[in-house]
Design goal:
2 strands, mainly alpha, 165 residues, 6 helices, single chain
């Protein structure tokens, strides 16, 4: 109902505007040196509107081209971040399922600069311990101590728990 009302108002407004254009076409004369351009007022206004829209479109397109590398870099960084998070989650999922080898592999894929690197190292140590690779477990715990010495308590508790098991 609302759509029909809007369409009716638009049609009536367009018809009235057309009658106005027909009754008073107006006159525009542009003269520069030896060149003159004559037109109706309505055609000149339409030409100005289309010119404005074209210039606006060109400016927006050029701005989009200029900012494209920055947007692409942000998109790539966001994609890498989501892949790293997915890798961590998949590793924890494998750890919970008891698939120690895959859990260790997934959790060991991240680099030192990742946000969850310490968590991944501790979980990888747990997976290696459950898999029977005590030397790998100790390597992961040493990397954890080197990476985050301020988290000494959490790392020591994890180490003690793994050695008890």
């Amino acid at each position: 109902m609302k759509r029909a009302f809007i369409i009716s108002i638009t049609l009536i407004g367009g018809a009235l505007f057309g009658l106005l254009m027909h009754k008073n076409p107006g006159y525009v004369l542009l003269s520069y040196q030896h060149t003159t351009i004559e037109s109706t007022l309505w055609f000149a206004l339409l030409f100005l509107l289309l010119s404005f829209l074209t210039i606006k479109l060109l400016l927006r397109s050029s701005l989009g081209i200029i900012t494209a590398p920055k947007r692409a870099a942000r998109w790539i960084e966001q994609r890498k971040k989501s892949k790293r998070q997915a890798c961590t989650l998949k590793g924890i999922q494998y750890l919970i399922q008891g698939n120690w080898a895959l859990a260790e592999k997934k959790l060991n894929q991240l680099t030192q600069h990742d946000q969850h690197y310490l968590i991944n190292l501790l979980f990888a140590a747990k997976a290696a311990s459950r898999n029977g690779a005590t030397h790998k477990r100790d390597d992961y715990l040493k990397k954890a101590f080197d990476h985050a010495p301020e988290e000494r308590l959490a790392i020591s508790l994890t180490q003690a728990q793994l050695q008890i098991e």
